[in-house]
Amino acid sequence: MSTTETTTETSTETTTAPVELQKGHIGQSIPRKEDRRLVQGQGMFFDDVRRHGMGYVHFVRSPHAHAKIVSIDVAAALSLDGVYGTLTGDEVAIQTDPFFEMSTPPGNEIKDYALAVGKVRFMGEPVAAVCAATRELARDAAELVEVEYESLDVLVDAREAVKDETLLHDDPATNVVWSGVFDWGDWEAAKAEADHIVKIDELHFHRFSSTPLECAGALVEYDKGTTQWTLHCNHQMPGVGAIWMAPALRTGIDKLRFITQDIGGAFGNKICLHPYYVTLCLLARKLNRPVQWTEWRTDQHTANAHGNERWFHDIEVAVKADGTMLGFNVKALDDCGAFPRYEPLGCIIWAQVTAGCYAWRNIRVDFTQVCTNKSPVSPNRGYSRMQHLWLTERIIDIVTAELDLDPVEMRKRNYVKTEQMPYETPNGCVYDSGDYARCLDMALGLIGYDSIEARKAEAATRGKLLGVGIGSTLDSGTNNFGQSQLLNPELQFSGNNEAATVKLDIFGEVVVTLGTVPQGQGHETTASQVVADIIGCSPEQVHVRPGHDTFFNSHAGFSGTYASQFAVTGLGAVKGAADLLRAEMIQLAAAVLQCGPELIELSEGHARIKDGPPEAALPFMALGAIVNANNAFLPPDFNPTLNHRFVYRPYFGVVDTEKKMGKLTLTYSTQIHACVVEIDQETGVIEIVDYAAVDDCGVRIHPQIVEGQVHGATVHAIGAALFEDFVYDEDGQLLTSNFYDYHVPHALDVPALKTGAIESPSPFTPLGSKGMGEGGGGGIHCIGSAIQDALKPVGRPIVYDSCNPYHRIWSMIEDPAKTRQNVEVVPA
Amino acid sequence: MEEPSRSRAISVEINGEIYERDLDARRLLVHFIRDDLMLTGTHVGCDTGNCGACTIHLDGQAVKSCMLLAVQADGSKIATVEGLAEAEELSALQQSFSSHHALQCGYCTPGMLMSAAALLADNPHPTEDEARTAIQGNICRCTGYVNIVEAIVSVGESA
């Protein structure tokens, strides 16, 4: 495809929340600290860690989607020279407890173990593990493990699973993990007030995942003397990982030391690694040697982390004649695969963005989640909100098309307005800041919307159908774990937290440790920018330790990198610790220079008396040395440490479990995407000819990193919209289990991307910044929107699926009426 | 019938250094480089030859080292990402990747750099389309390729 043009239009209108910091390094795109090692192949990923005597682990996995395990025989595997040992589900059932389940009864009666116990419930489910001296030998030995299965009926469709005619799990005796009704505002009144009710029978959000290039894995060591496990791993949320793992292993949280340095992408897909890690912990203990597991690509695709698939049924939308949207009513059916590992949280996370970008006040969602014989799901970039935002954008475009309204005018009429910010949604969430209409204008400007009619006419002369689409999304960040109590009031999770430490060391080195677990987001760089501005030095002087280590003592219960929050929680913790350090450095300098603290300024790596003589200055090294090595002269009641830990805790208050309302998340970044597509009428082949993404994430610490996240999220969305689909056959066999069949965008698939940005600072966060990076699936929404617009001249088909490869587009062109049976407009 | 040999001695030159090893005949070149020689900059992302994270130069050609057995490399000259910088001085390409933010997690980066370096050796001033074509066998899940392509083209422009 043609040229890549990155047009960044930036405007920084500040309407609220004056940020107390002076922007020195914050806001600059300084060189990333991480890059030097990574461009030289000197990164340290889990698979680069070696230990003497380590064994390599290979999992024996089920070829069946649903079967009883009759027997497992490991004797032949064990007889090979160099095989260190095996582990089976029977041992797991004795040595561990099932993982903690978050649903209400009976959904919480599901028993989920590290290896299959008694039964397999999805293709690729691990039934045994083999550990051997080499990777090759472990794989050979795994092939010698004999497993006898008795196959059972398979459920691959959530719409069948919900009937409970075949059951996956015996104890709950239902496939339903969770169900409940959310009813906000007054849907019946909205229906009565409306001029039209637009009805849509069924929409389908498909199964895909971000498929990080580095697969999952770990090297696990067990110390017999201290009963301590050390996991050199790529878990992106170790705080919560330990909450799952420690009780299952019947050990204490502090017996699990998680260490990460560089992680090769995660996108949420490295949150639910606990079954694999528990297996490795048991093997390391049993064999008394370090054990290493690197997931195979096929195994990542078949058995680790799919995104949530979701059906929407019986949608009714209440609309006034002028296009004002009053609300909607929908039944959502979520398919979480064989086990609800992070689930049922996806049954509530979407509610952070219940209203999408729109001001409708009456929303009713009847939500059900079921198990099927497919890979378990895990949070996946845009987790649960993306599915719901796709629904809201589909609703807008279908209503617009059916009532023959203008899609731009329709959005602007219904968007929450910038003057309404902070805006409380019908379910008690508060949109902190933003200007959706302005972002939309920018995006439309970037794709040349003004000349769209002429371009449609020109394309038609070439046999092409040209269409324009818009995707309006929110990236909600810093979530309130209290929303889990809207699913299950008994759960003891609420709020959020993140930790960091900042110290000034003996030779004047500023050392920062993070609780977060970076996977490419440049935390070392952005943390150094914040610390540098607070204590008055350059980012080069600030050493941020790479990665996460539980033994840094810089983590909190919710530590990790997930849910678009680092710029708020991670940097909030860094700022808090740096503020404490700064205050103490000033106090110390004042004591040494014998002046009032108000006269001390910190800048350029020195503490000095403002407007004082040049010699009245202490380099940071002097401050560090005094406290750490030369402190005899300090008075007895003055004990500075120059070493501070701070836990940042956003305030949410408690949620209302009766009305299912509350502040579910702290910040809302905006992404407005717009694109132009051309479709070949004969073949359905689609090309994106123009694409723009406008992002507003409040104060940007490092604009280049922000833009990089926008590019990445956009291309994930393009892949999901056009190619990426985890397709199962009726026997529950995954048909797209590697990068041949599961096509992710390559360089030649990606169109020119134009970006724009505005900054609406968050009034609720320490730096005015907002979490971003997940992107809300903007590309999925706008490409679907553009396809529907392009196909208007050929029978007005309705886009009903989130994945539209050319064969689906072709079938919409061939039989538009079939898709139109799905939609009806009735007078209210 | 005589059983075929399961192991073999090979000699390869990697980044200017000679390595002689006895190894399992079925060992993949990428595992030889990573596990036996501890040159862990070369990565494995897919096991099927799709992703290019394991790209190296074999006698001057960019190849995917997961698609070759180590014994096939006997007697060859190999370059890996560790050989790109000279005396801790980043190459223009490495520097360009950093200044254009052409990497996020850095996992695909070694393979991406080796594919790009092979392109630039043949074609010092590539166009954007040529850069995209040269890296079409390398998957990146973080950047969306935009900045990678810019980084490669910019090296050619300033050369």
How many domains make up the 3D coordinates of chain B? Answer: 2
Integer-rounded radius of gyration of chain B: 16 Å
What is the CATH homology-level superfamily of the largest domain in chain B?
Beta-grasp domain
Helix content of chain B: 25-40%
The CATH topology of the largest domain in chain B comes to Ubiquitin-like (UB roll)
**DSSP strand (E) fraction of chain B?**
15-25%
Question: What's the overall average pLDDT of chain A, rounded?
Answer: 95
How much strand of chain A? 15-25%
Query: Structural class given helices, strands, pairing of chain B?
Result: alpha+beta
CATH topology title of the largest domain in chain A: Aldehyde Oxidoreductase, domain 4
In CATH terms, what is the architecture of the largest domain in chain A? 2-Layer Sandwich
Question: How many helical elements of chain B?
Answer: 5
- Which two protein chains have the largest interface (Cβ within 8 Å of the partner's Cβ), and how many residues from each? A-B, 62 and 60 residues
End-to-end separation of chain B in angstroms reads 59 Å
CATH classification, class level of the largest domain in chain A: Alpha Beta
The strand count of chain A comes to 31
Biggest β-sheet strands, sense, barrel of chain B: 5 strands, mixed
Categorize the overall geometry of chain A: globular
CATH architecture title of the largest domain in chain B: Roll
- N-to-C order of helices and strands of chain B: EEHEEEHHHH
List low-pLDDT spans of chain B.
Answer: none
Descriptive report:
The complex is a heterodimer of chains A (828) and B (159). Chain A contains 21 helices and 31 strands. Chain A is α+β, with helices and mostly antiparallel strands and 828 residues long. Chain A has 3 domains: 376 residues, 2-Layer Sandwich (Aldehyde Oxidoreductase, domain 4); 189 residues, Aldehyde oxidase/xanthine dehydrogenase, a/b hammerhead (Aldehyde Oxidoreductase, domain 3, Alpha-Beta Complex), CATH 3.90.1170; 140 residues, 2-Layer Sandwich (Aldehyde Oxidoreductase, domain 4). In chain A, the strands form 7 sheets. An 8-stranded mixed sheet of chain A has the order 4-6-2-13-10-11-12-23. Chain A starts with 9 loop residues before the first strand and ends with a strand. The model of chain B has no long low-confidence stretch (mean pLDDT 96). Classes of the chains: A alpha+beta (828), B alpha+beta (159). At the A-B interface, helix 1 and helix 18 of A face helix 1, helix 2, helix 3, helix 4 and helix 5 of B.
